[in-house]
């Protein structure tokens, strides 16, 4: 990136690599705009375009007569410390793998001066993404003649719109290219319209299964179909009329062109086989294109900007000394708005932007940290609506996971494991031979359910209805599984076989991943139990049998986490030596962040020592998790150190040092690197920054709890603290100037405790009122 000025990311040259292109999105369409004035590529995705169907998990399901004895043997082997046998036993429970988020293809634009075969010289080139308004612009001149582009992905109109205005006439050719299989169909294309249809793979294995080929079945229900419709209006001359199956559009002598693109798949819902007839998708996309063109380019743009800014301007962060730190925070909020909208799928490992047919980790939903991190900051950043796609997916997994819980474990409730996909995959992955460190973990549902509790804790208007109709059923089902999964040894709640994603320990002269009572297991179940009791109170379901069993039996039996070997938080109850002390996951510190179980002084000291032991440097999302955890500890020196790692270039130096696949940073377009690109680092950064500025997880609203020295002065407006309080803060010289607190909407919050430093105040936050506090109030 050449410059960043407030809400603009600006470059002086077109993108050459995908990680230099700039993202647009409306929750359904994901577009990466390269900005080439002559041979433009706009890489496209559609949020529901995944490989396979519900059949993929069904066909690989492990039957109960194999799974249940295997789990029993694994448990017995763990308790007897026969870890080789435990590993072999849980591998018998492994199914195949989740399906893959597939790229749609590229919209290609060949642009030349009218009547010319070659292009001329471009000067004064710039391309810019305005993240406040959600508009990508390109400006340049051709031999003194000005050309302007403006592109947006509109949620209100459901389309990608490109407007080109030129003072010199241009010849423009538009066509679609895709790695998917072209799907022939009888299309009656409108005038000035391009229609393309494709079929996704019926099975698309992850890169770590290279021996398994991609399959392209055309059997009904095996794979999804997708339609792309491109329509244009212009003041030039169309070379040939559109006809059935037309694959490109050519117009000549254009000064003003509006291009509108819509795309729709045959996805219905996670339980339903995708439609084999692509025509309903074609008709739906054509209707969107026709409506947008009839509305007009300016109206579409105006409606888009109004919708986007309504969400984006809820929160504003100013950091005069480190403006890029504020821009990355705003960029994360921009990506949430662009990538996660009501009615569409939640963001996966790459959000809704992926260019590879066989992307890293299938660009799937990895639910042992990554999917959750995507939504860590959604409530604090005032974007509660953006969590709806996550809740819809988790509800679908909760439904599908009931069969998995019963079949594999003989348990009630529902279960999810390490990976999922748009079909609500809930089984263990690994194909019977993978390491359990990443292929066996039945706590995925427990963690996913907690997002529903956060909605209630941060909400206002709909909390009772949401708690009763959505949150309680999901939390109850996850806890029903946990109650059946946990067993008791001398009255102590125990889990086995138990993994700690994605770590290992040393024992019996070997390295293993399957042990007894991982700290993360116990912390997750404890968090879920307390969340269930809380939500039951709101929903009026305190006498439910699962609630009673949780309150009276399970929670009192969960052991307190105590410092172990070398004063660190142990990864498992037996506290065997770590096999990889600098592992990227900090699963054993879930109770510190985002959880709340590691809250006592000795636990916090051990958690801090554990972070020291892990080290700062790692993958992008790991650095962000550590940043949020250090903020929770109010360790400002560590926050400063970690921020430096966040903002380094992602391209790995070839110096023989750190593994390049474990080195986080930022790509030129500010995408976060695992590497490769994973959006969890961008979205998790929003939560980590908010955690530095306001915390409310412990029933107290704490102002500036972890303000780094690199942010000596600044202001933020619109952050949301529990229990639904808008917080504005201004500070200078590292000290609070003032803070304003107001209830969300028109709610009565009563008395709240507010803390600055070590001083606490009790304030009354009445309906429609605001409370303003300065540093003097805390003296």
Automatic annotation (TrEMBL):
Q: What is the lineage of its organism?
A: Eukaryota, Fungi, Dikarya, Basidiomycota, Agaricomycotina
What this protein is called in its record is: Uncharacterized protein
Q: Which GO terms describe its biological process?
A: carbohydrate metabolic process
Provenance organism? Apiotrichum porosum
Q: Please name the InterPro entries in this protein's record.
A: 6-hairpin_glycosidase_sf, 6hp_glycosidase-like_sf, AFCA-like_C, Alpha-L-fucosidase, GH95_cat, GH95_N_dom
**Where would I find the Alpha fucosidase A-like C-terminal domain in this sequence?**
695-745
Which part of the chain is the Glycosyl hydrolase family 95 N-terminal domain?
Answer: 9-268
SUPFAM superfamilies, sorted: Six-hairpin glycosidases (SSF48208)
Query: Per the database record, which ranges form the Glycosyl hydrolase family 95 catalytic domain?
Result: 321-693
Q: GO MF annotations for this entry?
A: alpha-L-fucosidase activity
Sorted alphabetically, which Pfam families does this protein's record hold? Glyco_hyd_65N_2, Glyco_hydro_95_C, Glyco_hydro_95_cat
